[in-house]
From TrEMBL:
It comes from Didymella glomerata. Keywords: Cell membrane, Conjugation, Glycoprotein, Membrane, Transmembrane, Transmembrane helix. The chain crosses the membrane at residues 296-322, 342-367, 548-569. It is a multi-pass membrane protein. The gene is PRM1_2. This is Plasma membrane fusion protein PRM1. Its main location: membrane. InterPro entries: PRM1. It is found in: Cell membrane.
Length: 591
């Protein structure tokens, strides 16, 4: 069938309304109305976003107040925990001091017994050595005396026997000489002396060693000291300072730490929301963005709508005749005809209206999506403010914990000084007394040696043995006691300044954990600030998604009809190539 040609002039003249009437309705053209609908939807979306942001700000401020309350509670936690922590610290110190007292008591008792044991061991050893030396010397002297007496008696016997023989021979010779002298006339009166040595020989035979030497040796054996007096003297002197120290240690074991010396921090009231307008400023910035978006939409779409009205006026005035029917004249190529027909089908006023409505709606969704992304990008800034709140809380905790630790450490150092002054003062006094006692023991031992061995040959050797065996050992023992005296002190560890902030510092490892720090039991308080903004974004996202589905469906409907028309044209081409006529196909588009 041949295409039908419609005369444009005749079509215009046959229109029931004149140009003036049509100009009165120019502002109601479908393109302007469509654009105004898009503008209205954008304005409604912006207003809805402003309402959501206002709600989010109110909820965020409420959440901030709740977070502030939780932060104040956390910052005041040292006040609530101080009583328990102070009691725990005091009980720990009391138990530590009690255990120290018990240990010191056992140590003092052990040292006392060790000192006594050492003294007894040294005196007993010294006594054994003295006894050995004295008894051995006495026995040696006694044996030498016996041998000397026996040898003396034997020698005297031999001498007296020889003297007897010599005396008898001499007496006989003198008697013979006297007889001869008596016969001499002039020498008859001479009398020779007698050679009788009987009395002298008798006295010589009765000669013995003096009994005084044996008596002196026996007396020396009986005078060996037993040191019982020295041991008793030392025992009494040593026990006194140790008993005194033990009394002081037992009194220390009953120590009750004064808990009022440990400080109790004051409650803290954080005001990072009350005195700071950061959250309100944040939402004010977002609201200003919505105002800017509304201004941009009005400044762009309204002039565009006016331009569309002007374009419609131009059409009506005949400067641009868009109502002229497009007539597809017969062409040599049927393919070109079908292509023109498909283009005309897809661009009919109805199809263009559906497509324009869908595209305009998607454009509105795009503008709303851009607004949503702006709000979304601002969310981390709000999260950082929550982290700043957590850091403020931790800083307040740090200050409180530091102040408490300083006071607690001062109290503990006072206890250190008291213990070092009282208890270890007893220890120092004990070591000094023991040193003095050991010196007195040496002096007492020397006095006993002087009283028992004075004037004997054993005095100097025995005193040398005393110096070597006892004196040097006691000097070493005294050096050890002096070292104990110099190092006898106690120092309890200081209280850590992060006692109340360990958990908070562990929790403040990142943004999420920082928000958790200010969360209540259900974990929502810390997120209440950002959650309000998230809800506004989610609400806007839901509206955009729903509208995108609706307007996308309109575009899809246009595509569906266009694809259907294309399939129809393809089928017609296939039939025509087979030589079969296509019935009732008019490549003509009428208005």
């Amino acid at each position: 069938m041949a295409p039908q040609v419609v005369d444009a002039a005749r079509a215009t003249s046959e229109h029931p309304l004149g140009r003036r009437e049509r100009l009165s309705q120019v502002c109601l053209n479908r393109w302007t109305i469509l654009l105004l609908l898009v503008l209205a939807r954008i304005l409604f979306a912006i207003q809805d976003a402003r309402s959501s942001l206002a709600t989010a700000r109110r909820e965020a401020l409420e959440g901030c107040a709740q977070v502030e309350s939780i932060g104040s509670s956390i910052a005041s936690m040292p006040n609530y925990m101080a009583a328990g922590v102070n009691d725990l610290t005091a009980r720990g110190l009391e138990h530590a001091v009690g255990a120290l007292a018990a240990t010191l008591d056992m140590a003092v008792t052990g040292v006392e017994q060790i000192v006594l044991f050492v003294v007894h061991m040294m005196t007993s050893t010294y006594l054994c050595l003295i006894t050995l030396a004295a008894r051995g010397s006495i026995k040696a002297v006694a044996d030498v005396s016996s041998d000397m007496a026996e040898q003396l008696q034997q020698s005297i016997g031999e001498i007296t026997s020889s003297l007897d023989d010599a005396s008898a021979t001499l007496s006989k010779a003198l008697a013979d000489l006297q007889k001869k002298l008596d016969k001499v006339p002039l020498a008859s009166d001479w009398k020779l002396p007698s050679a009788d040595l009987t009395d002298q020989i008798s006295r010589l035979k009765s000669l013995e060693l003096s009994s005084g030497l044996r008596d002196g040796v026996d007396k020396l054996g009986d005078s060996v000291p037993t040191f019982e007096e020295a041991q008793g003297y030392v025992d009494d002197l040593i026990k006194v300072p140790f008993e005194h120290a033990r009394e002081g240690i037992q009194a220390m074991g009953a120590l009750r730490f004064n808990r009022t010396l440990l400080p109790v921090p004051q409650k803290q009231q954080l005001e990072f929301c009350s005195k700071s307008s950061s959250i309100s400023d944040f939402f004010d910035d977002l609201l200003r963005i919505t105002v800017q978006a509304r201004t941009i939409a009005l400044s762009v779409l309204i002039p565009l709508a006016v331009l569309l009205c002007i374009a419609e006026v131009c059409v009506i005035m005949g400067r641009v005749n868009v109502h002229r029917p497009r007539v597809l004249r017969s062409r040599s190529s049927s393919t070109a005809k079908r292509r023109d027909w498909l283009f005309a089908y897809a661009t009919t006023p109805l199809m263009l209206f559906v497509l324009s409505l869908g595209v305009a709606g998607l454009l509105a969704c795009l503008l709303q999506f851009a607004l949503m992304k702006v709000i979304e990008r601002a969310t981390p800034s709000l999260t950082r403010q929550v982290v700043d709140f957590a850091e403020d809380t931790v800083r307040s905790l740090n200050r409180t914990s530091l102040a408490w630790s300083v006071g607690a450490t001062d109290a503990i150092r006072t206890l250190d000084e008291q213990i070092n002054k009282d208890v270890f003062g007893f220890v120092n006094a004990t070591t000094t007394a023991v040193n003095s006692t050991l010196d007195a023991f040496v002096e007492q031992t020397n006095r006993e040696l002087n009283s028992t061995l004075g004037g004997t040959v054993l005095r100097d050797p025995v005193q040398e043995v005393l110096r070597c065996l006892v004196g040097l050992k006691i000097a070493s023992f005294q050096n050890g006691l002096t070292w104990v005296q110099e190092h006898a002190h106690i120092s309890f560890p200081d209280v850590r300044n992060d006692t109340f902030t360990l958990g908070a510092l562990d929790q403040l490892g990142g943004s999420d954990s920082a928000a958790d720090l200010l969360s209540n039991a259900d974990g929502k308080a810390g997120d209440a600030i950002t959650a309000a903004l998230h809800r506004a974004v989610d609400k806007l996202s839901t509206h955009i998604r729903d509208e995108a589905v609706v307007f996308g469906s309109l575009v899809g409907l246009w595509l569906l009809f266009t694809v259907g028309a294309a399939l129809y044209i393809s089928g017609a081409s296939f039939v025509e190539r087979r030589g079969e006529p296509v019935a009732n196909m008019k490549v003509q588009i009428e208005k």
